[in-house]
Predict the 3D structure of the following.
Amino acid sequence: MFDLFKNDHLNQQHDGAIFNLSGLCAFSTDSYVISPIFFRGGNIGELAVNGSVNDLAMCGAIPKFLSLAFILEEGLRMEEFWEILVSIKNASEAAGVQIVTGDTKVVEKGKGDKIFINTSGIGVIHPQANISFNRVSPGDKIIVSGNIATHGVAILSQRKGLEFETSMESDTAPLNGIVKNLLDTIGTDVHFMRDPTRGGVATVMNELAGQCKLGIDIIQKAIPTLEEVEGACEMLGLDPLYVANEGVFVCVVNATRAEEALQTLRQHPFGKNAAIIGEVTAQHAGQVVLTSKIGGRRVVNYLTGEQLPRIC
Amino acid sequence: MFDLFKNDHLNQQHDGAIFNLSGLCAFSTDSYVISPIFFRGGNIGELAVNGSVNDLAMCGAIPKFLSLAFILEEGLRMEEFWEILVSIKNASEAAGVQIVTGDTKVVEKGKGDKIFINTSGIGVIHPQANISFNRVSPGDKIIVSGNIATHGVAILSQRKGLEFETSMESDTAPLNGIVKNLLDTIGTDVHFMRDPTRGGVATVMNELAGQCKLGIDIIQKAIPTLEEVEGACEMLGLDPLYVANEGVFVCVVNATRAEEALQTLRQHPFGKNAAIIGEVTAQHAGQVVLTSKIGGRRVVNYLTGEQLPRIC
């Protein structure tokens, strides 16, 4: 493993990595327990790298260093582990982050599920970033960077053994590049960002409405969704608004810069389907209200329970 | 959970924590899968905090921030989880570190084992620290900070349902305080530090001998070990040199400062049994040689396999 990931930090083979940092930093952690561990569009290793890269990006940070910790169940096939390791290496290179420290534990058969991965990350805050729910104001526009619900539907349809005409793939991707472009261009007029993983866009919007004590209006027909994902959601009885995403983020920007933000996102391969999906309002504080395709308005609540366990 | 750990970082409820750092930093990660999760002398929560605090301390860092990620198995009792959370809070306060970001995942019954915890940590390198195997030289003295093998024997005897006359307890403890005292006093004459967790003192010494391409001589009778731990090891067929520790570290110091280092360690409650146990030599490069209590000399190899699985 040392050989695969070799760099000056790992080569010290110490209990931790040592490096220079200065200024405002972001620090995040996530454990990945997705099932199945290999899925259309990726595997748990790639997901674990992109997930922590994206958590840092959402803080307005430029991701720099990752830690990597495995909990392996006895009996995991070495070929599978190796394939995951290679994906981790490739994903970290693609995202421009270094894996600098790690840990591996093994548990008995039946005390884990093949492989769980924790990645924690450190990034340096972009000089023009100032991301906080406190900065969200009435009138701000809400933008989603791409088609929603693709990851969740891809995993769930695979779990259920469903095959759709066009095989959907997880959208797992590192968002640090597109976020950097956005911050370079729009700077502090980006007020808030969040990647709607577990719980989807509806959950993130509800959290934001609760935190900033403002209302949120969402226009259903403005939300970009692949036709086959919508179809699969209908078949599976899912609302795409609650389905997990991996390579998509939501941002809240000053209304006067919304069009510019949208164009910036669309210039990036991961943002070509970006769309303005709604806005922040002083009305119905704490609530998310959706205008449906046929023009009706309804409150979008938190989902009770977890719609899709082990989706990330 | 937010209420229990509340601080300015967690209160932002973002995907990551943001703080100022400057200078040389250390970053470490460890997952904890110990079984049983409650044991004499502590529980998995306390262990997870102390473990990452100690990994940072071994790098010569002053631990500052921890992340905290849980993988819970369905069916874990809320009272048990709460007790672990309270231990985590107390241990982080005792060590003077802040828990600034976290994650919780739940897996189905039979896909985990009650609770696994990952902590990752960030620390700032002590201004007088310069810890690296590259700095180890022939003649350097090897010091252990306390009685060895206590943690491993306490866990294993509990697992096997053995009761000894004096009930042994895990020595889990945060080592950042005692390490800071050592670095304040001895500074760059501390060449190397490592806490001998999995694999014990023998494994750490073998790793060091391999890394610095020098020999290591250990004097068996100089190694501090509780009498009941030695007795239990005999009964269980274990060599204390390979048994895991949690609140003990090994340091390699310039010979001219060894006595001063020893006295500094002994002034701290966690170091009162500190002892010089051997030295680095230009002989038998890459090998650890033990002089036994009866005066014989034998090579101490790496242990094949893991003596005590899920000990941390």
User: Anything to note?
Assistant: Chain B has two domains: 10-125, 133-299. The longest strand of chain B covers residues 17-32.
